[in-house]
Amino acid sequence: MLVSMFLRSFFIQAGWNYERFQNLGFAFCLEPALRRIYPDPARFKAALLRHLAIFNTQPYMASFVLGNIARMEQEASASPSPEAALKNMPGVKQALASSFASIGDRIFWGRLKPMTVQICLLVWAAGGFYGWLLAGMDAQVSAALLLAGPLAGIVFYSAFSVYWRWKGLRAGYTCGGSAACALDSADWPRQIRLLSTAGFAMSLAIVVLSFSLLIAYNRGHVTWHGAAVRLALPVMVLLLHRASRAYGRSVFFAAGVILAASVLLFSLIGLQPFKLYL
Amino acid sequence: MTVLLNTVISSALAGLLNLDAVQAFQFLLSRPAFVGPALGLLNGCPMEGAKIGILLELLYIDFIPVGGVVPPNGTAAAAVGVLAHSAGGLPPSLAFFIGLGAGVAYSSLEYRLRAARSPWNVRVEAQVAAGDFNLSRWLASAMFAESLAMALYVLAWAGAAAAASRLPGLDWLYPGTDFAYSLIPWLGLSGLYFRFRAQVHKKG
User: Fold this and answer.
1) Do A15 and B26 make contact, defined as CB atoms within 8 angstroms?
2) Do the chains contact at B66 and A109, CB–CB below 8 Å?
3) Exposure of B108 by Cβ count < 10 A (0-12 exposed, 13-18 middle, 19+ buried)?
4) pTM of the model
5) Structural domains of chain B, count
6) Distance between CA atoms of B15 and B71, rounded to whole angstroms?
7) What is the pLDDT of residues B99-125, one digit of tens each?
8) Does B44 touch chain A (CB under 8 A)?
9) What is the pLDDT of residues B22-71, one digit of tens each?
């Protein structure tokens, strides 16, 4: 039953809609448990209809709620007064969905996902590929290396996401019934802090590496004036992004400013463009 | 003929990979960092595909899909970017910015697709109440529709890029787009840096 729910949990967002969010996927994931718990078709139907109500949480952390609700349904079915046992269910479901959404958003979307990009860049750097940074530096690299970067990030990320999908389901099913069930499965604040620190360290390493490459590729090729311009431009881009964020603008605003300024200077006015790297 | 076939296959692949973004698995196979080099390999330009993909990824990573927010679509951006270069014949710099726009524009289509599924709830409830418990066909229909929409969207943009590349005098734009493209890695890196810096300062 748990294995079937686990496999179905990969599709929890397949029917995502604005009226009830993940409700179709949630009912689909819970269906194997409900079939086992309620052999009587009328009770199974009532249970399935119950779980077509609104539901939304972080998709990987939904497993905690699924496990919990499966256990609650199991206990309700064995109870002499199932209505009383089911009375708390919507509240528990909502409370867990909100709590785990907050944790999951911070861990997966806020930290692990950007870390996959960092891993990709570091794998490429380890393999000697800097072509993404050095415009015009098109030394041939193997297709295997080009794919190894993103795949390393995907494997890293998926290891976490699959682990928590399975562990969440088991933990929820083990302690089901309470609005605080499985919230102590990990020291979440510590995990979040660790991931933030690791992500910041990798960001710093990539930025330092990029500036080092900028200096290394220009050293001895340009005058002091040229070097100053080539170093100032990336710094200006960083400051532009910082300013955009401060004024609540997205990164696309900064990209738009860069594109518009470049087209104006080098396409319309006709200034001679130069390369950041020689 | 080969270019056309590759473009159609790439569009279909983009449609399939897009399912990973929200609807199935969520292993990040739909992210531009993977879609770029994968479609680049398929179309004979792995290096350009990897560059376009990772630069789009660096910019798109700024958006978090929390709640009902529909962020710009990275799969559409990378697929259109790569195909605008490989099939459209545009330089990578212009192809990148076209991809960037295509990804942003896709979110309104994605919003409509999600909204179109809201009336399904009443129909699913009626079906279950009538004793038909098969929910999987609704989910399969939703995935098929999203996949098809993405494939057609990418194909349309690739066709538009190919048509645009035939416009006379378009090459006057290239010095500007090339220079802007050379600065994009720094914009992406700054996003990565500021994201984690803010988190470390907030202490979680």
Assistant:
1) no
2) yes
3) exposed
4) 0.95
5) 1
6) 17
7) 999 999 999 999 999 999 999 999 999
8) no
9) 999 999 999 999 999 999 999 999 999 999 999 999 999 888 887 778 99
